[in-house]
Design goal:
By secondary structure, this protein is of the alpha/beta class. Helices cover 39% and strands 20% of the residues. It has a single domain, classed as NagB/RpiA/CoA transferase-like (Rossmann fold, 3-Layer(aba) Sandwich), CATH 3.40.50. The two termini are 19 Å apart. The site of iron/sulfur cluster has 14 residues, from helix 7.
């Protein structure tokens, strides 16, 4: 990355981290995705029961595979080969009792808010309550000035790209932009803003100086 662009990105990250901390979330800066993975692994403890959302970011930084392969944790693996729909449903419920939940965020505002939108809502539910600790890994591309831009980001990038990835039968998976659909396949059902946290430090946000996910 050009050093002047790097400067702008790092200042944006710094501003966002200050506001996240004011909202009683822990905030970390990782210049690279490899460093993001190391920071996240440093927040885990041997024997932890770990679950995760369907995040591209935690996969792209290698965190998902590191947890899966480590043997030090009990990983509730929603992508285990052969897992049945019934087992996935049970895993979503077991997630409420886990030690650590790994996820990304659809957007992180410079006001220190996490903005997430789910269809099934298992991810936002776990981020809000249940797991003792929530670790969020977000590339700088997820940072937006405010909630209005977070909604814009969702409708123009995050949701259409996820709909395409998951082969959802939604209009945005065809047009690449939100059409405010109303069908059963809609992946935008629960709009959740996490702001000032009552439980300080439960949510840890690792902001990465590289693009991750969408
Ligand atoms: S078209 Fe539907 S699923 Fe796609 S972004 Fe809009 S509301 Fe979400």
């Amino acid at each position: 990355m050009d050093e002047n662009v790097r400067f702008v990105v790092e200042e944006r990250i710094k501003r966002t981290m200050e506001q996240l901390k004011k909202n009683r979330m822990e905030a970390y800066y990782a210049p690279t995705k490899e460093e993001a993975r190391q920071i996240a692994l440093g927040l885990l403890h041997e024997g932890d029961v770990i679950s995760c959302g369907g995040s591209m970011s935690i996969a792209e930084c290698g965190l998902l595979e590191a947890v899966r392969q480590s043997g030090q944790y009990r990983f509730l693996d929603r992508a285990r080969p052969g897992i049945t729909p019934e087992e996935i449903e049970k895993l979503y419920r077991d997630t409420f009792f886990c030690d650590v939940y790994l996820a990304s965020s659809n957007a992180v505002t410079e006001q220190g808010e996490l903005f997430n939108v789910d269809g099934n809502s298992n991810r936002v539910a776990a981020m809000l309550y249940g797991p003792k600790s929530v670790i969020v890994v977000a590339g700088y591309n997820k940072i937006v000035p405010d909630l209005a831009h977070a909604v814009q980001r969702l409708e123009q990038i995050a949701a259409p790209a996820n709909a395409k990835r998951l082969s959802c039968k939604t209009p945005c998976a065809v047009t690449g932009v939100c059409q405010h659909c109303r069908g059963d396949a809609r992946i935008c059902s629960s709009y959740v803003v996490m702001s000032h946290q009552r439980q300080a430090g439960r949510v840890k946000v690792i902001l990465v100086g590289e693009e991750l996910g969408y």
